[in-house]
Design a protein that fits this description.
This protein folds into 4 domains: 68 residues, no CATH class; 70 residues, Helicase, Ruva Protein, domain 3 (Orthogonal Bundle); 177 residues, Phosphatidylinositol Transfer Protein Sec14p (3-Layer(aba) Sandwich); 152 residues, GOLD domain (Jelly Rolls). It is 31% helix and 22% strand. It has 16 helices and 21 strands. GO terms for molecular function: RIG-I binding.
């Protein structure tokens, strides 16, 4: 249904489109969609104010409509209605009876309430994320995801569908996607934003291979007082950290922040693995773990400023990439100095996470409502008064002979944030980012892998026999604005160059949307200089109308519309090694999509390329 109206005096046009259809992945569901566009050309000088007011009113109307739908769904549940038959067109009477039987009116349309189905349960391996045929049936939800309302399940399906379209080959499991939705109270846009950023981070730093590739330094084996220990009463994996017995200052001085950060990331990766294992063992969804922190021995030494700073940076990374993984945090034997540490750390912890903290002073954990309410007596560690022997190291002071010099610590940066095979670049309107690759032998292969982190870009490849001028950082952004010198934006193609004379295009331009991951290769024909270019792409406001959409106008008010960001990796291979390197290339870099081994030959340039999204 399309509703349109216009005002002659104000020269404003409003379009409202409504559609009701069957849900694409669950035919028992009804999907309601609504889009609107507003164009105000003249409103007595108050055009911007009128647009903002209209968008606010439109958002309130959508919110009210959602409340009405939820209200009537709740009434159906209160009345005991668990299923409403789907409406179907009336059956046409047989030809001989058409004159005797009157046509009955169609029953009123209704929203079906999904119920549990008697279907075999499915496991994550049986229903891999990204499969177009998977279904979120009731048994699968109950077995692996937990209780979900219809709206929550719809958000999960829509977010997973978006991942299938933009992140082919590297889609996380439903349980992981659900964590990001819960972290943002099932706000689809906010969850999609932080999930996309986390996937980019995991790919950039190859976190998927951390458990297999990282070897813990011997110092961590000897002096890091933490480890996994059975599970709690709810079946959640239990991690114990004897923070009071750990020489945090000594570990930071001897190892640096990077090793401690990798240690914490490996703990979280192991926690995700144990949650999946316990889900299979206990037959119910387990998506988080319990952490027990013993603070006996905590003193002012633990408040060493560089150590607290390192802790805050670690918390920032964990909060952004492992949301909703902490089920409960039990803090035992908190000393008097603990409130000081809590004051420093708590502002950096999400509010929902802080609600999961339980603090016990002295021996309060031994009484009613204490540790036994969360952990079975037989698995309480011996150092907390239990009978279970715990293999967690007792810690101790790190010898000062193992400390690194203060100069080394000050000059060292966190390589996990800075050193990576991927590079990032900013793309501005009128200022593309360009990368130079020199080819000395023909038939060499240029491969690339890049993610569009922000905005839409156009990707081009050019060839020139002339060497471009040394790369210069672009210090003038769009409309003459000054760009920070730290901004990574390189200009190589001289403004005086003429396309077709000084340089030529060797690939068809590729438009890449925000959130997309693109992998591909180009087999070169000539030696010389190849330039990979990412250019700002200004997408039309609406593909079917010249009128801007409300969503586009709102987005333009919230973020800068003249800047894009890409993260890329490139490599040059010899032609004879190209086919044999496909498998190793994919296994060496986290998140690579499968590259096609076959290349298509162009009859014009005799070059070939493959592109995978």
């Amino acid at each position: 249904m399309l509703i349109c109206f216009s005002c002659f005096f104000c020269k404003k046009h409003f379009n409202l489109a409504l559609s009701i259809q069957v849900h694409p992945e669950n035919e028992e569901w009804t999907c309601f969609e609504q889009t609107a566009s507003l164009d105000i050309k003249s409103f007595f000088g108050f055009e911007n104010a009128a647009e903002k007011l209209a968008m606010k009113q439109y958002a309130n109307s959508i919110k009210k409509g959602k409340e009405i739908i939820e209200y009537y769904l709740k009434e159906l549940e209160d009345e005991g209605v668990t299923h409403v038959p789907r409406w179907s067109p009336p059956q046409a009477p047989p030809p001989t009876a058409r004159l005797q039987l009157p046509l009955t009116s169609a029953p009123a349309n209704a929203i079906p309430v999904p119920t549990a189905k008697e279907t075999p349960s499915a496991s994550p391996t049986d229903l891999p994320a990204g499969s177009p045929d998977d279904k979120l049936d009731a048994d699968y939800i109950r077995r692996y995801l937990g209780d979900l309302t219809p709206l929550q399940e719809s958000c999960l399906i829509r977010l997973r569908q978006w991942l299938q379209e933009t992140h082919k080959g590297k889609i996380p499991k439903d349980q992981h996607v659900l964590r990001f939705l819960r972290a943002r109270d099932f706000n689809l846009e906010k969850a999609r934003e932080i999930l996309c950023q986390s996937l980019t981070w995991r790919k950039q730093h190859q976190v998927d291979f951390l458990l297999d590739s990282w070897e813990r330094p011997q110092l961590l084996h000897d002096y890091y007082t933490g480890g996994w220990h059975h599970h709690d009463r709810d079946g959640r994996p239990l991690y114990i950290l004897r923070l009071g017995q750990m020489d945090t200052k000594g570990l930071v001085r001897a190892l640096g922040e990077e090793s401690l950060l990798r240690q914490v990331l490996s703990i979280n990766e192991e926690g995700l693995r144990r949650c999946e294992e316990n889900t299979r063992v206990f037959g119910r969804p387990i998506s988080c773990w319990t952490c027990l922190v013993d603070l006996e021995g905590l003193n002012m030494r633990h408040l060493w400023r560089p150590g607290v700073k390192a802790l805050l940076r670690i918390i920032e990374v964990v909060e952004a990439n492992y949301p909703e993984t902490l089920g409960c945090l039990l803090i035992l034997r908190a000393p008097r100095v603990f409130p000081v540490l809590w004051t420093l750390v708590s502002p950096f912890i999400d509010e929902n996470t802080r609600k999961k903290f339980l603090v016990y002073a002295a021996n309060d954990y031994q009484g009613p409502g204490g540790l036994v309410d969360y952990i079975d007596r037989e698995v309480i560690p011996d150092f907390l008064g239990g009978d279970c022997l715990c293999e967690i190291p007792e810690g101790g002071m790190v010898p000062k002979s193992l400390y690194r010099t203060a100069e080394t610590l000050e000059s060292e940066e966190l390589r996990l944030w800075t050193d990576t095979i991927y590079k990032t670049a900013s793309v501005f309107k009128g200022a593309p980012h360009e990368l130079l690759i020199e080819i000395s032998e023909p038939s060499s292969v240029i491969t690339w892998d890049f993610d569009v982190c922000k905005g839409d870009v156009i990707f081009n490849i050019y060839h020139s026999r002339r060497a471009p001028q040394p790369p210069k950082r672009d210090v003038q952004g769009a409309h003459g604005s000054i760009v920070s010198p730290a901004t990574n934006n390189m200009q190589l193609i001289d403004r005086s160059w003429i396309l077709g004379q000084d340089y030529s295009m060797v690939e068809t331009a590729l438009t890449c949307k925000e959130g997309e991951s693109v992998q591909g290769s180009h087999v070169t024909r000539w030696p010389g200089f190849y330039i990979l270019q990412w250019r700002f792409h200004c997408s039309p406001a609406c593909s079917t109308s010249s009128l801007p959409r409300v969503d586009d106008v709102l987005a333009s008010l919230q973020v800068s519309s003249h800047k894009c960001k890409v993260m890329f990796y490139t490599e040059v291979l010899g032609s004879k090694d190209f086919r044999g390197s496909m498998t190793s290339l994919e296994s060496s870099h986290s998140g690579f999509s499968q590259l096609s081994a076959a290349t298509t030959t162009s009859s014009q340039s005799q070059s070939s390329s493959t592109v995978s999204r």
